Amino acid sequence: MIIFKLRNVGLALAMVLTLGFLAACGGDSGGDGDATQNWRFVTEEVEGQVQYVYAQEFADRMYEKTDGEVQIDVYEFGGLGEETDQVDQLMQGTVEMAVMSPGFTGDMVSEGQLFALHFLFPDDVATTQEILTNSEALNTDLRERYEEHNISPLAYWTEGAMQWTSNDEPLTSPEDFENFQMRIQMSPLIRESYEAYGADPQDMSWGELYTALDRGTVDGQENPIFFIGDASFHEVQDYMTMSNHNNYVAMTTVNTEWYNELDDDIRALVDETTEEMQDWIFDEQERQNEEFITIIEEDTDNPTEIVELTEEERQVFRDIATDVREFYRSEVSELGGEILDKLEEEIAEHE
Ligand code: 6CS
């Protein structure tokens, strides 16, 4: 088990500063005399990748703002298990914070599956980030649905537009998806989205994906460019189709009970930091996605042909994907698509 702990250096200093901080902010130490707060923040990615650096930056900011009172240990993917284990850990409160992909909560929070809908958000990633940050449908209505499961999404943010990878031929039309073994996250609506194109989706953790692509257990997958490059999926795939069919959305989540019981001043700092991080992580994902397109292009040992979909080709997929929204409304949503309706109105205001 690999656990990355941050800022062990300085812990002693933090302990000394703790009493002073608590006096200043009026907080308490739970009456146990141990004033330092140690939180666990688990991510689905490894060191250097977008989710991990998000958690690291978050931890640094909280440490500074509280003069060392709050120390957050950041765990990379695999440190505490796979993605679905991490969802359980957050719900149970074994970890306090998590960066979570809605795709791994699909069986539990049906409404959260709306992020699986292709061509829902604008093509412009910055506009998508603005919607994710300000949407009432997501930040109030969807949050309430997650809170029924003891998960509070404090923010939603993009890790970039997703692209498809494949072998043999690029994915440019629904015909190319006929019987295509598409790796997906565990969400019934992601499955439906790819079945609508004619594919044969298979869910698995990304930890198994490189080997599965290499052995041909699955034929292809979707992810933002930085992740395709950093996880080396391009090494075992011949084509990357620039489909921009969806954004990879991540959520900054906390255990609801734990969060509600936080000292007011500390909770305000968590909220303030979450808000500040929206612009920071947008720039970071952009930087990493730009960096990795060059890395993939220049990797002559593992050549990847990059294919841009035309607007006409995208329109064929968009038409099919639009029908999947009706499936979400009638078969997936427990609210008849109420949250999706509101989100669509908010998106329309931006277009
Ligand atoms: O494909 C996945 O499952 C992984 N992709 C990203 C961009 N982050 C973590 C996630 O588990």
Characterize the main sheet. 8 strands, mixed
SS content category: alpha/beta
CATH topology: D-Maltodextrin-Binding Protein, domain 2
Hetero groups in this structure are:
ligand 6CS
- Tell me what portion of residues adopts beta-strand conformation: 15-25%
Following the backbone from N to C, one meets helices and strands in this order, namely HEHEHEHHEEHEHEHEEHHEHH
Rg: 21 Å
* Proper CATH architecture: 3-Layer(aba) Sandwich
Shape: globular
Total strand segments:
10
InterPro entries: DctP_fam (IPR018389), TRAP_DctP (IPR004682), TRAP_DctP_sf (IPR038404)
Pfam families: DctP
Protein name: ABC transporter substrate-binding protein
Family: Belongs to the bacterial solute-binding protein 7 family.
Structure description:
Strands 1, 2, 3, 4, 7, 8, 9 and 10 form an eight-stranded mixed sheet that branches. Strands 5-6 form a two-stranded parallel ribbon. Helix 6 (188-196) links the parallel strand 5 (181-184) and strand 6 (200-203). Helix 2 packs antiparallel against helix 10 (264-298) and helix 6 crosses helix 11 (311-332). It has a single domain, classed as D-Maltodextrin-Binding Protein, domain 2, CATH 3.40.190.170. The protein is of the alpha/beta class. The chain has helices spanning 11-25, 50-65, 83-92, 125-134, 136-147, 188-196, 209-215, 225-230, 256-260, 264-298, 311-332, 338-350, and strands spanning 37-42, 70-75, 97-100, 151-166, 181-184, 200-203, 221-224, 239-242, 247-255, 305-308. Residues 44-45, 83, 101, 159, 185, 206, 223-224, 227, 248 line the site of ligand 6CS.
